[in-house]
Amino acid sequence: xxxxxxxxxxxxVTLGQPASISCRSSQSLVHSDxxxxxxxxxxxxxxxxxxxxxxxxxxxxxxxDRFSGSGSGTDFTxxxxxVEAEDVxxxxxxxxxxxxxTFGQGTKLEIK
Amino acid sequence: xxxxxxxxxxxxxPGGSLRISCAVSGLTFGSSWMSWVRQAPEKGLEWVAxxxxxxxxxxxxxxxxxxxxxxxxxxxxxxxxxxxxxxxEDTAVYYxxxxxxxxxxxxxxxxxxxxxxx
Lengths: 112, 118
Known about the structure:
The complex is a heterodimer. Helix content of chain A is 0%, strand content 48%. By secondary structure, chain A is mostly beta strands. In chain A, strands 2, 4, 5, 6, 9, 10 and 11 form a 7-stranded mixed beta sheet that branches. In chain A, a hairpin with a 3-residue loop joins β5 and β6. The radius of gyration of chain A is 13 Å and the shape is globular. Chain B is mostly beta strands. Chain B contains no helices and 11 strands. Chains A and B meet through β4, β5, β9 and β10 of A and β5 and β10 of B.
């Protein structure tokens, strides 16, 4: 199975400051069709997950533009330009290129 | 408005069985891949199983193969997960999710808690 490794696992951030989460895969996530199926999800406390980004860098409708995704191959990043209070939660990357789909361990973002 | 509503969770003894359901509305269920994803208490997310539109393609994570069966009824806009020979490590919130393709899960239910304990 493809192992997804996130870092850091804990991310204390001051309001208004940027944040960055790394996600590395144990194999390339480039599919034979040329796409890279890497998504990012946010899970706020007590809520279901919500997708933020799909196919590495495509932001979902309604997701603030302070969120962005980048990367290629085995190395991916989620960035928040200015953290707001509503961004508190756990962030997961997930690959869908290889069966079975696998998630990263999650990164807990908190306000300092 | 898209809604995925799980039901059927509860307490079951080790070795027991449970069937959980997901009623879907607000999207074209019959045209959608669907998945089950679970989250053990205070743990991360784990994809469990998925199924294509007509049920001809299924996939499971190794830890549930031979014990869990995913199914769907397109006439009822419903997804199911039959869980047999349950183990303590199957204790989790089970989420129903729409898979927009290759793991791009775009809609999630609120989850149903399954607790396996004697």
